[in-house]
Amino acid sequence: MAHPSEAGAEQFPSDRGEVPTPRTRVWRGGTLETYDFPVAQVSDYLEQDDTVVWVDLCAPQSADLRVISDELGLDPVAVEDAVSRHERAKIDRYEGYAFLNVYVPHIHDGELTLYEVSAFLAERALVTVRQGPGFDIDALVKRWDQSPGVDIASARAGYLLYGLLDMVVDLQLEAVQALDDEADEVESMIFDEAFAVREIQRRSFRLRKNLVALRRVALPMREVVNTLLRRDLRMVAPALAPYLQDVYDHTLRVGEWTDSLRDLVANLLDTRIALQGNRMNEVMKKVTSWAAIIAVPTAVTGFYGQNVPYPGFSSHSGFIVSTVVIVAGSVALYAVFKFRDWL
């Protein structure tokens, strides 16, 4: 892909929480020609030869959607999916274009947040729709500008979509790596008696919940990329096939990694329960041993406390005998329990 000119390489303003204006770009012959033009001019650029147009809508208003829908002739159902929250990750084909919905994960302080990103893919146009500023669109633009490989002039808008999917899957891999590190920390906590059981349970539950959420949005990515790879559908240029195949391999890795981590978390929970049971057995063993030792003086003093005559009754010798029996019996039991590692 040709690098943009010096003027075109200027940084776009970052999302700051307010509703940003639509961002636009147009390439001609693989070179960035202009950007930040009105959305109403999209159809004018598409009427020209050798152009590729990108439009980004962040938290779009109804007027923005109406304009881009008229410019590209989008189906109302697809537009509704683009603005609806919590749509599943998928790809739908319409006449002349395709609609995709993907999720970008972000983990901060152990909490997983999913940012929804939708896209309309035509032969020479890509429209991205974000529900909020959580997805770093500047990083995506930088990836388009700096990534070597297929020229945008030959790959058309499919190249832009490849950059988007590649970034999404890379971020999913980073999220899985972060969850893997979290699983290692939970494992260390389980075998460290200094940590409270409640804290281990809290982090284990949070980790399992994050894995389920990430797996739910990562697994459908296989279907999305696999659909784009189908040659009979001709949704992207053949030159993009090796690059999309690499993205597909990464989606498989994300799915397999989340499955293995889910099994690991289940094993960690089982291990925690087993260790807790073993610790309880150790405690019960020690309590029982001390109870047996204490039972010796209790039995002896109870016997000598009878109010009927017996050998040594009301005599100094009886006191000596009872004391010797108590000490000898207690020491003997302590020695036996210590030898058997019960104390």
Question: How do the helices and strands line up, and which of them pair or pack?
Answer:
Layout lengths: L22 E6 L2 E5 L6 H5 L4 E8 L3 H11 L3 H8 L6 E5 L2 E12 L2 E11 L3 E6 L6 H10 L5 H4 L1 H34 L6 H22 L1 H10 L11 H64 L11 H24 L4
Parallel strand pairs: 3-7
Antiparallel strand pairs: 1-2, 1-3, 4-5, 5-6, 6-7
Helix pairs in contact: 6-7, 6-9, 7-9, 8-9, 9-10
Characterise this structure.
- The chain is an alpha+beta fold and 343 residues long.
- It folds into 2 domains: 23-273, CorA soluble domain-like (Beta Polymerase, domain 2, 2-Layer Sandwich); 285-339.
- It has helices at 42-46, 62-72, 76-83, 137-146, 152-155, 157-190, 197-218, 220-229, 241-304, 316-339, and strands at residues 23-28, 31-35, 51-58, 90-94, 97-108, 111-121, 125-130.
- The protein has a 7-stranded mixed beta sheet, with helices on both faces.
- β6 (111-121) and β7 form a beta hairpin.
- α6 runs parallel beside α9, α7 (197-218) runs antiparallel to α9 (241-304) and α8 (220-229) packs antiparallel against α9.
- The radius of gyration is 35 Å and the shape is rod-shaped.
- It is found in: Cell membrane.
- This is Magnesium transporter CorA family protein.
- It comes from Actinomadura nitritigenes.
- It is a multi-pass membrane protein.
- Pfam families: CorA.
What can be said about this structure in brief?
It is found in: Cell membrane. The protein is α+β, with helices and mostly antiparallel strands. The protein has helices spanning 42-46, 62-72, 76-83, 137-146, 152-155, 157-190, 197-218, 220-229, 241-304, 316-339; strands spanning 23-28, 31-35, 51-58, 90-94, 97-108, 111-121, 125-130.
